[in-house]
């Protein structure tokens, strides 16, 4: 018996309740969760912006300690500290063999998936991203566990599982930021500030953070912003002034909920040949954008989506933890507020109120 937060219907709050978990089956691992980030993506299930079969056990950004392993597990052993990841390369497919491991998730699963490890109220309940980190325990496949050093705080490490890797990779791998470039990141939430960090890692010269919330603009500076603006219009004027009209090399859209109507203004922040990365999740039913294609084509601009920051978790989680350990990547400061599992809905209310870079559930 364990407690987890479950979403039963679109529009519901998360309910914290008793769940049953299977023993770890072949290739699976029982993890005692230490911390789980309150990512905006889970909220997209609650609002219906991300369609999904419900109910689900929430949470896809967690870290914890391995409690038990099933038959055949070789990657981890009981007592190991692990970051959980949802985007796991198979190693065999075309994407994995051409350096695009993050896209492997779109390949058909190789074998019949096991039934969900969780059940509640007498029925099986799938876990978001096959992780279900909003709870005291989870059972996941060993491939989703990345062992980390025991002196790394688990609450900080948890954020690598989604926010850090998605945001950092948006600048480094997908935006392909180069030394000396000008980068603008729209949205300074838990993901956006990691794009600021990514731009800094890549050697950007000017890094402009755009957010209407003053607290987030203040925080953005610690994560690498050299300038801040409260709106895209303000950023446009600022970047034009700094670059003497040239505009930015890279724009990254990382607001909480995407909106196609802002695409034109976002791409106009970039110079001819500039790159725009769309990190924001836009409601799945929305299919209109505003974009002057005449202007876009004749300025040779690039527009790119974002799946897990273009990263390979087995390379990049250790890489990012190395940067953290050497003081080159901020993780601890991402955690604005910690919550007990029972207070999960307060955590999401605070996220919507713009109070948190990241709210994090912590467990004893
Ligand atoms: Zn997430
Ligand atoms: Zn693959």
How would you describe this structure to a colleague?
- The structure is a single chain.
- This protein has 364 residues and is α/β, with parallel strands linked by helices.
- It folds into two domains: 2-163 and 310-362, Quinone Oxidoreductase, Chain A, domain 1 (Alpha-Beta Complex); 167-306, Rossmann fold (3-Layer(aba) Sandwich), CATH 3.40.50.
- 24% of the residues lie in helices and 26% in strands.
- It is built from ten helices and 18 strands.
- The strands form three sheets. Strands 3, 5, 6, 9, 10, 17 and 18 form a seven-stranded mixed beta sheet that branches. A six-stranded parallel beta sheet has the order 13-12-11-14-15-16, with helices on both faces. A five-stranded antiparallel beta sheet has the order 4-1-2-7-8, with no helix packed on it.
- The two termini are 16 Å apart.
- The model has no long low-confidence stretch (mean pLDDT 95).
- One zinc ion (ZN) is lined by residues 89-90, 92-93, 95-96, 104, 107.
- Residues 11-361 form the Enoyl reductase (ER) domain.
């Amino acid at each position: 018996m364990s407690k987890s937060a479950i979403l039963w219907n679109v529009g519901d709050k998360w309910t914290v309740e008793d769940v049953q978990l299977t023993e770890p089956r072949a290739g699976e691992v029982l993890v005692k969760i230490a911390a789980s980030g309150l990512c905006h993506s889970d909220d997209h299930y609650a609002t219906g912006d991300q369609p999904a079969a419900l109910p689900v056990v929430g949470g896809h950004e967690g870290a914890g300690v391995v409690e038990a392993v099933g038959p055949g597990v070789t990657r981890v052993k009981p007592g190991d500290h692990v970051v959980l990841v949802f985007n796991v390369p198979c190693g065999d497919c075309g994407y994995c063999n051409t350096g695009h491991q993050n896209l492997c998730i779109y390949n058909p699963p190789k074998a019949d998936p096991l039934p969900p490890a969780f059940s509640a109220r007498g029925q099986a309940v799938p876990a978001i991203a096959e992780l279900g980190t909003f709870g005291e325990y989870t059972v996941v496949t060993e491939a989703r566990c990345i062992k980390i050093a025991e002196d790394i705080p688990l609450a900080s490490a948890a954020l690598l599982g989604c926010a850090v890797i998605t945001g950092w990779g948006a600048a480094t791998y997908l935006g392909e930021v180069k030394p000396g470039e000008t980068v603008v990141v729209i949205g300074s939430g838990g993901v956006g500030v990691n794009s600021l960090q990514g731009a800094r890692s890549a050697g950007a010269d000017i890094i402009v953070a755009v957010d209407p919330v003053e607290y987030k603009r203040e925080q953005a500076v610690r994560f690498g912003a050299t300038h801040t603006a409260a709106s895209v219009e303000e950023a446009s004027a600022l970047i034009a002034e700094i670059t003497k009209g040239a505009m930015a090399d890279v724009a990254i859209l990382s607001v909480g909920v995407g909106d196609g109507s802002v695409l034109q203004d976002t791409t106009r922040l970039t110079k001819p040949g500039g790159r725009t990365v769309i990190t924001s999740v836009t409601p799945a039913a929305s299919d209109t954008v505003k974009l002057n294609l005449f202007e876009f084509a004749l300025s040779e601009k690039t527009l790119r989506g974002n799946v897990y920051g273009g990263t390979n978790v087995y390379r990049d989680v250790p890489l990012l933890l190395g940067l953290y350990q050497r003081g080159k990547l901020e993780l601890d400061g991402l955690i604005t507020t910690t919550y007990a599992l029972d207070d999960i809905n307060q955590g999401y209310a605070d996220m919507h109120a713009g109070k948190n870079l990241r709210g994090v559930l912590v467990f004893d």
